[in-house]
């Protein structure tokens, strides 16, 4: 009964919004043609009761013009800012049309949203009552499900998946959870008070999609769009920040203020060849690299590079301590000796991928020729093809929103920009995360006690051979 009443409220709001200004007699006529019609006419008293409920539930005021006796939505221009109300009305309008034309049921195809049928109602109940939930969660990565105690803050629908944004009672950091990865939900009695500063729209303002990354800040991204892509973007903007800043006969320039996350790059790829990232340089370069990696799947002529740190990667605390205990020298004229296990794991990577080595260690400051001499004298595997330069901030200035401090990452980016003229894949070995955000998928951080491990080597092989699909 309550469900049917709710549908009647939405029907009334939708009817007046679509056909208003409209008289009560016209509303009654449409009611009799509605799929919700139960054989009873819409009494004036019932109409006004529903009218009050619409205002209370949806914050939509139905007003009457005394001169014409026609009803309309007083604040209909505000509907665009009421996302949930708009979504409810749109969803209802489509569903209502299908019910009224039931003979078309096999000619109208819609996408399913599986997660909405399962746990969404429970989460909405918990959010309304500010109750904590215990979720049994099974991520795509990992074999076993585990329990999480969460404080549900808000939800978002994106690409047929519902997502929950929640924090924990002992950790106020907001994290993202997909409803279709939830095995079970239990609403518990413990209540919580949502943060006073909770602003879901503001939290996601700079995000593209659903994920917010602490180390990827929003920046202004300029994209050149040609052909039919221009009309597509005008009709269906990719992001709320989208602006058309230049218009030409055969193309247009659009700007977005978003974080260049993996979701953003995926959206650019979905738009095919009509879209070209122009600025900032680092986003354009990452787009070029992704396209190069895709091309390399069909073209095996791809350059593979290992950016190699030494301290904590090749020479290890374990090996140095062992040699000292045995009274053996720990260094030669170049520096600390390398751990044989780390060398063997480097050899395993090179044998499996054919990758070449570029030194990113501070040892490179002794010069490329000296490093090549060391490589030869120590009989190290593979081919050493160069060293990274000193920080290239002057040549590649950071864009707005980028953070300073990733000096080694800047040097690696500079080397790739200068030397990698064909499609390439790369990995970065270092015991310190001194890299740029877009280099994270290529970064393997070692434990300085043990250096490159067998597991590190297997991970590097996957990345370099294009088998990494996480």
TrEMBL record:
This is Uncharacterized protein. Residues 119-187 form the WYL domain. InterPro entries: CBASS_pafABC_assoc_protein (IPR051534), WCX_dom (IPR057727), WYL_dom (IPR026881). It comes from Alistipes shahii WAL 8301. It comes from the Bacteria. Pfam families: HAD_SAK_2 (PF18143), WCX (PF25583), WYL (PF13280). Residues 218-292 form the WCX domain. PROSITE patterns: WYL (PS52050).
